[in-house]
Amino acid sequence: QVQLVESGGGLVQAGGSLRLSCAASGRIFSINNMSWYRQAPGKQRELVAGISSGSTNYVDSVKGRFTISRDNAKNTVYLQMNSLKPEDTAVYYCNVVVRRTIAARTTDYWGQGTQVTVSS
Question: Which residue numbers in the chain have pLDDT < 50?
Answer without folding.
Answer: none
